[in-house]
Amino acid sequence: MTMHRSRRSADRTQARSTRIPQLPPGRLRNPYPPMALLSDDQVEAIHDASMRILEKFGIEVMSPRALALFERAGASVDHASQTVRIDRGLVEEALRTAPSAFTLTPRNPGRTVHVGGDTINFTLVAGPPNVHDCERGRRAGNLRDYQDLVRLAQHFNCITMLGNQVCAPVELPANSRHLDTYFANLTLTDKAFHVSAIGRGRALDGIAMMAIARGLTLEAFAADPGVTTIISVNSPRRFDDAMAEGLMTMAEHGQSVAVTPFTLMGAMSPVTLAGALAQQNAEALFGIVLAQLVRPGAPVMYGAFTSNVDMRSGAPAFGTPENTKANVASGQLARRYRLPYRSTPGSASNAADAQGAYETMMALWGAVLGHGNLVYHAAGWQEGGLTASFEKLILDVEMIQHMAEFLKPIEVDDAELALDALGRVPTGGHFFGDPHTLERYSTAFYQPLVSNWQNFEAWKEAGGLDATQRATKLWKKALEEYAEPVMDAPVREALEAYVAKRREEIGDGEP
Amino acid sequence: MTMHRSRRSADRTQARSTRIPQLPPGRLRNPYPPMALLSDDQVEAIHDASMRILEKFGIEVMSPRALALFERAGASVDHASQTVRIDRGLVEEALRTAPSAFTLTPRNPGRTVHVGGDTINFTLVAGPPNVHDCERGRRAGNLRDYQDLVRLAQHFNCITMLGNQVCAPVELPANSRHLDTYFANLTLTDKAFHVSAIGRGRALDGIAMMAIARGLTLEAFAADPGVTTIISVNSPRRFDDAMAEGLMTMAEHGQSVAVTPFTLMGAMSPVTLAGALAQQNAEALFGIVLAQLVRPGAPVMYGAFTSNVDMRSGAPAFGTPENTKANVASGQLARRYRLPYRSTPGSASNAADAQGAYETMMALWGAVLGHGNLVYHAAGWQEGGLTASFEKLILDVEMIQHMAEFLKPIEVDDAELALDALGRVPTGGHFFGDPHTLERYSTAFYQPLVSNWQNFEAWKEAGGLDATQRATKLWKKALEEYAEPVMDAPVREALEAYVAKRREEIGDGEP
Predict the structure, then answer these.
(1) Which of A204, A503, B128, B307 has the greatest count of CB atoms below 10 A from its CB?
(2) Which residues of B are less than 8 Å from A262 in CB distance?
(3) Domain boundaries, chain B
(4) Mind telling me which residue stretches traverse the membrane in this protein (chains A, B) (predicted)?
(5) Tell me: the pLDDT tens digits for A341-377?
(6) Closest residue of B to A312, CA-based?
(7) A78 touches chain B (CB under 8 A)
(8) A22-409+446-511, what's its fold?
């Protein structure tokens, strides 16, 4: 017994000392100038085309409440076709009240998300109907996997925010499962998250539950927001009722909205990048105008999700050169309007393989060089967003950390220039034992979690596992290391009571 | 029989129509401003530190001929320690004669490599002792694999130049195998290549054989170079005799030299990036001074290969954030001296897996953002350069093509803005059938070779192959599609005669 106990204790000690290495928590900033793929004239030409789309073609809005708001603001509204045409003046007015930066504060204020300026945030994948890992295979989304995936998001510091549902828990009733996912987000993590804004009810529930978790009234919460949502426009040029209502509900309550047209070139938008960007710009700004009409000053983000399809099959593609260019160019547009920028990496790969890695890395560079403030779907995205992958999540954490480390400025001073060491080490010698090295070696370099730097023989001897196989071990280890953040019992009870009450209210009806 | 024949003919027709898609041949330019990670002051501080290294500590040069050259130029030479100390004046003088751009013309002038300015070139991996593919496993380098790998380099347009030996053909005598590899380079490809400059003989043979292939005298060839080499400094601060002789031989003959310190932070250079860059700068400039002393105006490149080691094991790492930063910052240094820039991506992965992809993509972005003119080791690099991988070569071609496509400027004009199409397609509709799409769809987007964009079910049905498995099929297909470039019989005979003569001359001795 004693021996058993001491062995377990030794195991624990070792587990502590061999925890998965990761970057410390904190606000990540991009200190370098954003990349520009478009000239100023080209930005203006795209802006002008988007204004002509709004003025001439208009946007269909399937919400009477939204139509009335636009009408009151002086827009031209065709009620038969539910089409709203707005002029540049209305756009400019909205841009005067939209903030260029804001914060989202979750229940742990240490996890406050800064949106705007030079700050970058990375979120979990959102929306997949399926889940995959290499041990259990592919399966429908479910609450247990949902919980494990948000635990992983909590565990890894580089994921500063959850997205909308990391997978759909399809075994739960569709009209109330958002309550279960919000509850999981709030109890298993202390990070900010995206609420589902498909209709008023789901948005309100997310707002109410975060307010409870923070101990705030809805009024106080409106002045100090803590949740956001993605409004995925039904491109081309349509806001459906649920999305419009969701957007308005969020804005009414002072919560943030990222208006994100899903402009797949060749399918939902022109086959040309300039045309797709013009359309994206028109649709994103239109949603931002609506938010500002609801509540001037409501926090908003310029959302971009422009990629292309495979023109032979119509299948969506991600992490392509076109997607990457769009990520950079969209940042130029967002900055033209002084709006925070939501960007998106991605991959169409059906496996957490080399394609998954190079496509994601490609689009991730676009998002970073374009100064994305919120890099959405950044961890766990597989199969073009149809599957949340445990292994891909680990690979993505590695890639995000590579970027975070790349963005740390290079220091140049006498100590870093190391002339003393350069004079000490003989020609053809080595720096391993030099005091300059010994003082710094343990923290000098980024320590990866997935990358294996063993030589071939040692790697083969240890099993010859590829990066995907190592990722399987890592997500399991991360779940073991995961610690549930403390929540005061009364808060938890209040959340449970809210969920129970709302579940009963919703019944078989609409949320 | 007839049927058999017609089926084969049908197969051939299909094979032709389903060739591996790839970008057309041509000069790739990077039209965007280079990224800057260092401020101007930081660049100057690194420059100044490197000058102090050259002035105070000096460089060991194990070649009496080189020592004499430096002495004649006014450098301080300590013969006992073979140490050369040079002052800034000598560096500045050399930089006045070193060209900022030049061309390397192989036997096919259509394949001329432009080195400098905004042009980017990508080469095959160079130097691995081993070869790997997923069907035949890992094995020692050999001539048959060498030949297949250079055939692949010939086949893929994005590889604009071979490197030095893509693998060592170890079954051949070490003192004459360079003749066999040059012969393979010259007959199986019509692209430029790197000669091995380990000593005078190997360099001279490469120069002579390219001159024969182009039908030029050595004098004419010196005025219109066609080969280059990498001078890998024995960092810290040592040029061995073979490298110094190789460098001087190349410069004498007007051929190009990329002086490339291999500065692995923590091992051959300080553990700090600023220190490693200062050392790299000193060593690279020192080699460039030597080339200019031999022949003012000799084409040279500023070579950078700064990465870090795993401080727990001392193992080299590549494609790390540090490597990526060094790739960007080294470009700033090269441009300070108006020198063409040789950069390097890489990966430590032992497999053509997700790690191989994300590490390579990471460092590749650094090379491109840093405006590398020659991106060395860009295709086939595995195991930190110890193995040439057939699958990795295919994945790398895909990644290089992604970058090439990313660098194509975005066009913005009325046709590209597609306002007519945007007005035609109804809200919530799609652009698939619109004339604007139909006119452009076949060429609108980059067509990948490895990436699979099928949905999960179709992919699974087709075998569920991951990117690495697909890469195996692709290199085999590429070898089938490969066409040997025509060479006039007299040229081939002259090359054969040169090889035979030199093999006899060398015998059991030194080349």
Answers:
(1) B307
(2) none
(3) 22-409+446-511
(4) none
(5) 999 999 999 999 999 999 999 999 999 999 999 999 9
(6) B442
(7) no
(8) TIM Barrel (3.20.20)
